[in-house]
């Protein structure tokens, strides 16, 4: 990975804008989307500080051909098409980092991309504000690694830059397990807040607190059947920790519902319901979330 080459961030949504703004002081960064723009981005930090970020925003055909790395930050359902639009314009051996929720695209993109591929899972909370703004609603932590534990040096380099930019990150060899952990967090939070149009922190209140607990019970059975080791402290502790840390956040699925965009329902709930089916586990609450969450 060449330091002088730019980092491309493909996907100008909340996560893409957050990465671009945080990395702006550390790396040459280019944000790639459907439309180019010369307007600066505006970041509101969790501490309430406003930052102005003059980051180039270009289309895929305008992207630098020799980037150091591509961070794919689109939603899961748009990931493959977005990457295909960029692939024709950049070096095919460029390293790729996948930031998608769920567990739908990580496996196929890891296998088909010519360059090194890492997966990232993060609990950073962010939401867009207008055409050019992003609110960093809560600090979290990011883990980065290859599905089979390869490319540790690359994961370490990227995690180091992210940490220095204010986004705490750690390279890891067990990213597959951590993706399942994030899947559990997303399943317990996103569909509920999207259905009831509430912020994450409102899940602490009645009647939502009991709904979260019931979903955690189903998730625990599914994860045990899949052989996914629980996090330290257990599933419930992990999920409530994220809810507390992102209490003011509007979850990505809620943002999609409010904007009448497709959601990540399939990427988040699909793998869990398929696993429940494989193991003969009844999951009525997850089934209900699927039925009541727009696709």
TrEMBL record:
The reaction(s) this protein catalyses: (R)-pantoate + NADP(+) = 2-dehydropantoate + NADPH + H(+)
SUPFAM superfamilies (UniProt xref): 6-phosphogluconate dehydrogenase C-terminal domain-like, NAD(P)-binding Rossmann-fold domains
EC number, UniProt record: 1.1.1.169
Keywords noted in UniProt: NADP, Oxidoreductase, Pantothenate biosynthesis
Signal peptide residue numbers: none
Any GO CC annotation of this UniProt entry: cytoplasm
UniProt superkingdom: Bacteria
Pfam families, per database record: ApbA, ApbA_C
Pathway the protein takes part in: Cofactor biosynthesis; (R)-pantothenate biosynthesis; (R)-pantoate from 3-methyl-2-oxobutanoate: step 2/2
InterPro entries with a match to the protein in the record: 6-PGluconate_DH-like_C_sf, 6PGD_dom2, ApbA, Ketopantoate_reductase, KPA_reductase, KPR_N, NAD(P)-bd_dom_sf
One Gene Ontology biological process: pantothenate biosynthetic process
The keyword Translocase is assigned to this record: no
Domain Ketopantoate reductase C-terminal: 174-291
An annotated Gene Ontology molecular function: NADP binding
Domain annotation Ketopantoate reductase N-terminal: ranges: 7-148
Family indicated by similarity: Belongs to the ketopantoate reductase family.
Primary role: Catalyzes the NADPH-dependent reduction of ketopantoate into pantoic acid.
Protein name per Swiss-Prot or TrEMBL: 2-dehydropantoate 2-reductase
Organism: Modicisalibacter ilicicola DSM 19980
């Amino acid at each position: 990975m060449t330091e002088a080459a730019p980092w491309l961030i493909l996907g100008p949504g909340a996560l893409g804008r957050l990465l671009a703004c945080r990395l702006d002081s550390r790396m040459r960064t280019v944000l790639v989307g459907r439309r180019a723009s010369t307007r600066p981005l505006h970041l509101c930090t969790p501490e309430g500080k406003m930052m102005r970020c003059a980051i180039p925003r270009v289309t895929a055909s305008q992207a630098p051909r020799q980037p150091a790395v591509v961070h794919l930050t689109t939603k899961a359902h748009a990931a493959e098409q977005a990457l295909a639009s960029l692939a024709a314009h950049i070096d095919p051996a460029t390293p790729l980092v996948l930031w998608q929720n769920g567990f739908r695209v990580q496996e196929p993109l890891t296998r088909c991309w010519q360059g090194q591929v890492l997966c990232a899972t993060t609990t950073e909370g962010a939401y867009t504000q207008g055409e050019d703004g992003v609110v960093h609603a809560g600090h979290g932590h990011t883990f980065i690694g290859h599905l089979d534990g390869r490319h540790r040096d690359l994961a370490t380099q990227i995690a180091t830059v992210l940490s220095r930019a204010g986004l705490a990150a750690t390279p890891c060899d067990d990213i597959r397990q951590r993706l399942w952990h994030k899947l559990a967090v997303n399943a317990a939070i996103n569909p509920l807040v999207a259905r009831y149009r509430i912020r994450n922190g409102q899940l602490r209140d009645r009647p939502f607190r009991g709904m979260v607990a019931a979903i955690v019970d189903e998730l625990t059975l599914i994860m045990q059947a899949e052989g996914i080791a629980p996090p330290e402290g257990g599933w419930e502790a992990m999920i409530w920790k994220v809810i507390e840390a992102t209490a003011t956040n509007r979850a990505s699925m809620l943002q999609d519902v409010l904007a009448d965009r497709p959601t990540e329902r399939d990427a988040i709930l699909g793998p869990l319901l398929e696993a429940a089916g494989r193991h003969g586990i009844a999951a009525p609450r997850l089934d209900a979330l699927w039925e009541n969450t727009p696709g």
